[in-house]
């Protein structure tokens, strides 16, 4: 039997962040991860020489919690263009961030994404949000995002051409029922910082945090069956004793370990990867959005245009995100995507090679207006952390991990 001061169950972003802050102040701990690698949902696989993140993911560099603990230089971040390409009847319209590219005002003014008034409201809105501290967004009154956009005065054209396809991808839901305060928070992050990926894949983020920890403080393939009092029972029969227990797993596993029953609605996504001889976006470092929300394809990205490490032997890696097609088998889904993208990119789509499809049925816990922050402290010596307790993001995973570490140290 092993005895530890604090045992953290789960090696995702929140558990690693909790461990990082405890270690920084000299507190002993043991982190138990049930799988063969750290990161939770933030994992990267190597398939046929390509780097595939498990679902399309990005790091927003202005996230306040990420800036506290990550070394961006060592992650060798590669940056997306600030804005998006929007599928039009012929070709694409470009919507760039005017704060980053002064010439963007000209392209925005003459694009048909929305009216000039819509585009001027973007700047006004961004300036308003810049004045609000990050921790105040979630204390503000909220509606659903769609109602907020209409009340702010954006036209239906702007909402349908830009906000629905862009934020449909961020929230993983089409109707923009997500809380408006989360929309405002993320809008600020996009405008104030960059969207980026580490050169070697998103898994570099949890691996960097893990490198800050003593090697003997992490156990992989250590699946926890349950705990009682201060005893933790592992698959295989091992028993660990801990003064404090932190549950840092996904919400379903947390409920099981804690004996809770919580009704949660999840936003679902599917990410399908292809390899191609060349980039269909011709090296443009933007995400391509589909304003037709009835289409199979919601957005297309070419990660190898952002970081060449994602590609292999000069070939491009293409990421296609879809929603609502979870019941299709892999072959039918792949064919459906290719048929639709034939209209986007032409016959070259026919020779794309399918690499892998990730169905992620519990990608994000839906965050609606009125959602309340859940307690992280459950007892004198029992805690939990994870973004599902606050709002769905890498930032919230890190925030809840830090907060639990501070509770323990207090």
UniProtKB/TrEMBL annotation:
UniProt-recorded Gene Ontology molecular function terms: oxidoreductase activity
Gene3D superfamilies assigned: FAD/NAD(P)-binding domain
InterPro entries per the UniProt record, alphabetical: Amino_oxidase, FAD/NAD-bd_sf
Pfam families: Amino_oxidase
Domain Amine oxidase: residue ranges: 13-408
Protein name per Swiss-Prot or TrEMBL: Oxidoreductase
Organism in which the protein naturally occurs: Emticicia aquatilis
Source organism phylogeny: Bacteria, Pseudomonadati, Bacteroidota, Cytophagia, Cytophagales
